[in-house]
Amino acid sequence: MNDVRAHEDELLYVYAVTRPFAAALPEGVRGLDGEPPGLIEHRGLCAAVSRVPAKDFDAVPLRAHLEDLDWLGRTARTHEAVVAALAAVTCPVPLRLATVCRDESGVRRLLDSGRARFVPAVERLSGRIEWGIKVYAQAEQPSPARELDAQEPRAATGRDYLRRRLGERQSRDEIRRRAEALSRAMHAELCERAEAGRLHRPQDARLSGRPGENVLNAAYLVPLDRSEDFVAAVRDFVPHSEGVRVELTGPWAPYSFAGGPDDGHGQEGQEGREER
What we know:
The protein is an alpha+beta fold. The protein is built from nine helices and nine strands.
């Protein structure tokens, strides 16, 4: 086990909580300090941690870092990689991004204070994974020639220009209607096949970098032995209609369901800080 004692200028970053386990983590997994994550066991629970510099993760600098999308992205990728490695050998309950404690005593207090959530969550999530579904409505992009026509319509063709713009708007509306109808039907069917389903806020294309309008952003909790059937059901819904796109992501550790059956704790918006 990696030495997890934090020095005076360091804090302990906590990725997830699990039951104690004997299996080795996959080769090559590294935490935020570039070392394999350490494990702190306490009263039948185990926290996976890394040492991190206080100059980055103490309250004031952390607030600034959370506004830096590049820093946030790097931290989130490492956080998710550690949780995925844990999921390969045990059942982790992922914690919020940037959950930090002062020292080992703080980690133990975190485990004690969260016991009423952690213990049932480990039992509920054991043997289960999360699949994500996103549905996009993506209208056809106008060609450069059509863009030029739109910018400089000639008076003699003004009526044609307005008719074309109306047609484009109607086409976008129709694609969105098809995407919404598919999303409703898919979500209802997949909730029947999963143990639980959760709707997240649609992602902003400016942040996600994905083309099209995100109409459905959902997560589903699926037992491992039913995962293949779930994926096959998703494929049955893949649309043949132009402009509607379905993306399946996963399998993931069950981030969206770590907070409990009635908790809105999800994959997005988890940035924060818990100091113990």
